[in-house]
Amino acid sequence: MSIASKKAVAGVSLIEVLISVFILAVGMLGVAAMQVMALRNNDSALQRSHAVIQSYAILEAMRANRSEAIKGSYNTNGMVCTAPQANSLVDVDRRDWISNLKAALGNSERTCGSISCDAANTCTIQVQWDETRASDKRSPAGQLVSSTQTQIFEVRSKL
């Protein structure tokens, strides 16, 4: 074998390095995409946890003021998205609840709450919030597609 042929075979070719770097880059993009998805799912779970916490917070306030809750004073007419004026303890509880919902779930016009108690003292609490941030969709061109993802959490409990 001549010296010239040994030099031609020795070492790694530039094409092999280029292919290796390309495969590594594709793998890193996959890892980044999985991380973004994990962060979105984590944000979604956090918002749901806040909705659960705030639902039980208003239930506990209603249990503390049971006589008014049984009368239906805490009931709302559908979803309430703005904190009411505080003229009584019931109004203070509802104002604080809506304010806390907006602080925990985002100050959006779609962050709302609803309270409905029936004659059997079973209360239904609904919390609605906008989860668009956690579910952003992109077009094939990579542009953000406007989408509204409204979530509703509901809990029923006896007073």
From TrEMBL:
Keywords, comma-separated and alphabetical: Membrane, Transmembrane, Transmembrane helix
Residue spans crossing the bilayer: 12-39
Matches recorded under Pfam families: N_methyl
The UniProt record lists the keyword Lipid biosynthesis: no
Domain of life: Bacteria
Organism: Xylella fastidiosa (strain Temecula1 / ATCC 700964)
NCBIfam families referenced in this protein's UniProt entry, alphabetically: type_IV_pilV
UniProt name for this protein: Pre-pilin leader sequence
